């Protein structure tokens, strides 16, 4: 396993990310050090899309899978959870990455399109609230303060509105775009279906958010924990109700309400009819825990991964 945590800052890409597994050779039939999910070499192509939050896990897996199965071309776009499901509904992809559970209207659209799918759990994430590294006054926020900050109320938000001891400076907001599962999750547990602050810069590319917050002392934003880990030297993590996201608080649920599961949705027909798609998905589940921990997320328990593999095997 490469040192992905230190590689992340330069390799997490944006909404046009293409991850191609197309290199490496192995005279032993595709069962080199990384190991192949199935015996012997596999050939073919696999296409996925979806969440930028899940992307760091898949980026690492795709690169390592290239060494195990050089005959398989894997391409993964990053259109956000909602954008990925749109492509999934159109039959353009074999799997879709998601940082939230599939919505009822998406389920209905897939049923109408005749696309059966299987939900597979990959890891856990703690949605992280961050401010500029030079911010020396925000050391904690409550859930109520988050709501006061982020819900649109027609006013110009000042830091002093949240705490009179804080500067009378306008708050600069950065948030995931509306096609992002991260936005959906934040909307559900913090905004509670209210409108997000109208001045916020929205982007499905989490790197845009990182760079914006790095560049303004009055900035605040939120995104997946791995993006904080990759940029922790230049961002300041804000505890919520006194609890910071980390492996223990995310896994236990203590970091509430911002802990969440990360998923991949596999197209059943691709898993049963496309050997390459099945092989890659099996490899993904087998390596998701190790890669999740390497890039800054939290792995499932071993028995949970065994359950996901059993669900996948049932599709073969």
TrEMBL record:
Protein's membrane topology: Lipid-anchor
Matches recorded under NCBIfam families: ptsS_2
Biological role: Part of the ABC transporter complex PstSACB involved in phosphate import. Involved in the system for phosphate transport across the cytoplasmic membrane.
Region (Disordered): 24-43
Family matches, as InterPro entries: PBP_domain (IPR024370), Phos-bd (IPR011862), Phosphate_ABC_transporter (IPR050811)
Secretion signal span: 1-20
Protein known as: Phosphate-binding protein
Domain of life of the native organism: Bacteria
Keywords in alphabetical order: Cell membrane, Lipoprotein, Membrane, Palmitate, Phosphate transport, Signal, Transport
Transmembrane segments annotated in the record for this chain: none
CDD domains: PBP2_phosphate_like_2
Entry's localization field: Cell membrane
Domain PBP intervals: 38-285
Subunit structure, as described in the record: The complex is composed of two ATP-binding proteins (PstB), two transmembrane proteins (PstC and PstA) and a solute-binding protein (PstS).
UniProt record similarity statement: Belongs to the PstS family.
């Amino acid at each position: 396993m490469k040192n992905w945590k230190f590689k992340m800052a330069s390799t997490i890409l944006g909404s046009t990310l293409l991850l191609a597994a197309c290199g490496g050779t192995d005279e032993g039939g595709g069962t080199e050090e990384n190991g192949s999910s199935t015996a012997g070499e596999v050939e073919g192509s696999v296409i996925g899309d979806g969440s930028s939050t899940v992307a760091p896990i898949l980026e690492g897996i795709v690169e390592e899978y290239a060494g195990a199965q050089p005959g398989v071309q894997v391409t993964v776009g990053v259109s956000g959870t909602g954008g990925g499901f749109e492509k999934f509904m159109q039959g353009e992809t074999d799997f879709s990455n998601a940082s939230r559970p599939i919505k009822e209207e998406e389920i209905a659209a897939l049923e109408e399109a005749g696309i059966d799918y299987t939900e597979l759990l990959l890891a856990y994430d703690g949605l992280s609230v961050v401010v500029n590294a030079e911010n020396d006054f925000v050391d904690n926020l409550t859930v109520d303060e988050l709501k006061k900050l982020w819900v649109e109320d027609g006013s110009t938000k000042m830091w002093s509105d949240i705490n009179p001891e804080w500067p009378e400076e306008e708050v600069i907001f950065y948030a995931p775009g509306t096609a992002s599962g991260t936005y959906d999750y934040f909307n559900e547990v913090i905004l509670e279906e209210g409108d997000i602050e109208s001045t916020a810069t929205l982007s499905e590319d989490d790197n845009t958010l990182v760079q914006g917050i790095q560049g303004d002392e009055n900035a605040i934003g939120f995104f997946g924990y791995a993006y904080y880990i990759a940029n922790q030297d230049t961002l300041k993590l804000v505890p919520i109700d006194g609890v910071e996201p980390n492996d223990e608080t995310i896994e236990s649920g203590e970091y509430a309400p911002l802990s969440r599961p990360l998923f991949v949705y596999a197209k059943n027909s691709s898993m049963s009819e496309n050997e390459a798609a099945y092989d890659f998905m099996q490899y993904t589940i087998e390596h998701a825990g190790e890669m999740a921990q390497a890039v800054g997320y939290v792995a499932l328990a071993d028995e949970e991964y065994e359950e996901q593999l059993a669900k996948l095997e049932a599709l073969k």
